[in-house]
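Late entry, evening session. Most of the bench is empty. Finally got around to the prediction I had been postponing all week. Sequence below, unchanged from the version circulated by S.P.
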Amino acid sequence: MQIIKNIDELKEFKKNNKNKSIGFVPTMGALHLGHLSLIKNAVSNNDIAIVSIFVNPTQFGVNEDFDIYPRTYQKDIELCKNAGVSAIFMPEIDTLYPNGLDDEVVLIPPVSMAKVFEGAIRENHFGGVLRVILKLFNLISPTNAYFGKKDAQQLLIIKKMVSDLFLDINIIPCDIVRDKNNLALSSRNVYLDSASYEMALNLPNAINKAMSLVLANTLESKIIENAAMACLAGLEVDYCNVVDYNLKKIQEIQKRNSLLIIAVRVGKVRLIDNCWF
């Protein structure tokens, strides 16, 4: 496995692997079994697999956790190596932002998708996400790029960017990976102490309740949302809504075009989860 730190090395790696399919998994590191599921898909379904590890400053807002975001680089490298990754791209900030963060062309995501839910709470977050993802896509030129369904809003906005900008990349959504108690895996779960972790389990309980209602053919959004909210006692709820794939609130579940998205706070830890119908 090759560890690549700069763009010239990346170009050389691509030159040496010309005409091979590339599976790409963009990450901010602190890798866990959720990331590993994406990586395994990339390794299994492509000639070579590249993982990027880069804590992207442009997607963090004021008073968010950029400075303390977990960085476990040696552990991440070992996980990638054991999974059969071909290369890790680990650039410094000035490699991806050579002209600084405030003096370059930026992307403006669609207001209807990026100023709601996560975007309403985390100002300019998705602009920063698209900014770094487009840079990485242009540098790596992947055949297939793998994203987890847990970050549903991010996934849907990236799919729209790829469509709108005619990027020749397949976006592959991958199922949420959960721990033994059904809590969705997240790099921020390390912030949970034992008491907070127990409270956080109300989140997957809400997801399970919603899924059971839909399986029983209860499709009215308000009923599903209220049932999920009843499971979230003790948590500060940022949102709990049924939406379509354009992130529009809808009155009734539409099969293969709907999801329930939830964001909560457990003390200082903010968690998201969802289920796709």
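Two things to note before I forget:
Residues 187-272 form a domain with the Pantoate--beta-alanine Ligase; Chain: A,domain 2 fold (CATH 3.30.1300.10).
The chain is about 40% helix and 20% strand.
Will write this up properly tomorrow.
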